[in-house]
Design goal:
Surface presentation of antigens (SPOA), 13 strands, globular, 26% strand, four-stranded antiparallel β-sheet, single chain, seven-stranded antiparallel β-sheet, Chemotaxis protein chec, 317 residues, alpha+beta
Amino acid sequence: MREPPMAELTSDIVAEVIAACKAGAGEAAAAIERNLGLKVKVSVGPPEKINIQDLPAGWSGGGLAVVLISGRTAAIVLLPESSGVVPSWCNNPGPTGQSKLTTLAQELGTVLLPEQYMPDDFKAGMVKSIQGALARSGVLSGAPVVPLELLQADGKKATAYLIWPSPKPAAILGAAAAGPKPPPKPGSPSKPSPATAAPTAAKSSGLAKSSSPKRLASIQDLPTYARSLLRIKVPVIVTLAEKRQPLGWIVELGPGSIIQFEKSCEDMLELSVGDHPVAMGEAVKVGDKFGLRITSIILPGERFRPVRPGRNGAGNP
């Protein structure tokens, strides 16, 4: 089970959020450049209050929504598509683009919110309607809004908006559940259901063909029992360097001792999960914290079993 957060996002922490945004403005600009390819300077505007019934004109369309979930509530960073700075690939990101959006959400969460409200989950994606996303989020009129002014190198300006609290973070990006399909129009031919069509096709051909296995498009396509395994916590370790030394040398260590490694300070760091190396990366500064930017994934080693001839000469795997 997920541990409860240290504090809950409420509408009375405006001063703390503004202080965090101002302190992390430079890191936020760097995160936007790395993940969206947009070089900007970020400045924090005066706080406002949202009116759900009378949103600004630029919020009528879609936009990029970054959801920073802290416990049962969330803060939302909205960048309207009408601002003209949302990359076109965000509408159809693909695996690489989705990874960039998730990384953007993670990095913004660490620099735009106070440390005690650090998000324990984050996601990002395009919404077709900002108004619809806010309605799904449960944000109420009077909720605080902090404008984040984005100044581009050519002098053009855009504004992102940090809004909180959202009591329904899971519904912000997800579309409404699909309702029952409408009945067929009169006179239109009805299509047989897959359950009845398959036996009919098998009878007509005299041979039942096996269906090809379904490819998983995302983690959400996994069965429920498999998704439950993803909640298991495992140790994640970043290794700077390591070396072997005699015990006699180790017992003489004390405050002020320096251990020298045969590794350059520019070399990549290794990320291990459950004592298994999974990736390489470089050290980065995230706010006043240490972070690791993954640059490559370590593929698992191939395993081979010898094929030995059996008694009858056939190979046994």
